[in-house]
Amino acid sequence: MGDLISAIKRFVIKRKITETIRDWKPVWPRTITFDLDRKSVNGLGFGADVAACELFGKPDRMDARDNGEVMFLYQQNCLVLEFDRSVLDYAAVVLSLEQGLYGWEKIEPAPGRWADLTLARGGKTLSVDGRTREDAVAAFLGRPGNRDEDDEEIVLFYTINGLELEIELTKEGCVKRVNLFSGNAG
Q1: Residue range 74-121, pLDDT digits in tens
Q2: What's the predicted TM-score (pTM) here?
Q3: Cα distances (Å, whole numbers) of residue 2 to 6, 15, 65, 66, 172
Q4: Which ranges constitute the DSSP H helices of the chain?
Q5: Mean pLDDT along residues 52-79
Q6: N or C end of the chain: which has fewer CB within 10 A?
Q7: Terminal CA-CA length for the chain
Q8: What sign does the dihedral 57-23-44-17 (CA atoms) show?
Q9: Sheet holding 87-94: strands in order across?
Q10: At 22, is the secondary structure helix, strand, or coil?
Q11: Whole-number pLDDT of residue 94
């Protein structure tokens, strides 16, 4: 019975979101900006309703969960947006091929279409790509609140203006994904 209820919840959530995005056109903005002062992604603030997400265009993939979360993937530039109860609370840009991420088989853009990610803070910017190294991130953001390293990756943790920022690096110290959570940004 629980599986049936979960399936019904996912269906209702997905149908509502599908109706919202039905007429959206593909946009795929080339540059993605995580503005840590304004708590926004390309001007879309954390806490914004899913309908305001039209500026990114129609997502390539959508996943609805029975807990009310909805995730959009923009495959062309490897942008992931997650909504909790229809409000933006997570964004990520994947800067290297990821297998099995977010339950999708793989996240990889069309050839030559990796996003240009910019971090903005205090009137300054840092362009981030798969060649950006840990020392460049630290020079821009300062020392992380925490740094975790295991056999597969290095993760730098920052809390900035109520946002939770995670910078994932390869073992060689190059950025592979940037995650931004709303934290208590509300």
Answers
A1: 877 788 999 988 899 999 998 876 655 555 555 555 555 566 899 999
A2: 0.83
A3: 6, 20, 14, 11, 45
A4: 2-21, 134-141
A5: 83
A6: N
A7: 36
A8: negative
A9: 61-64, 69-74, 79-84, 87-94, 175-181, 163-169, 154-160, 146-149
A10: coil
A11: 86
- Residue 18's CB is within 10 A of a number of other CB atoms, namely 11
Q: What is the dihedral angle through the alpha carbons of 78, 144, 140, 42, rounded to the nearest 10 degrees?
A: 40
| 8 Å CB contact between 47 and 69 | no
Here the tokens at position 118 are 């910019």
Q: Using CA atoms, how far apart are residues 181 and 178, in angstroms rounded to an integer?
A: 10
Place of tokens 């690096």: 169
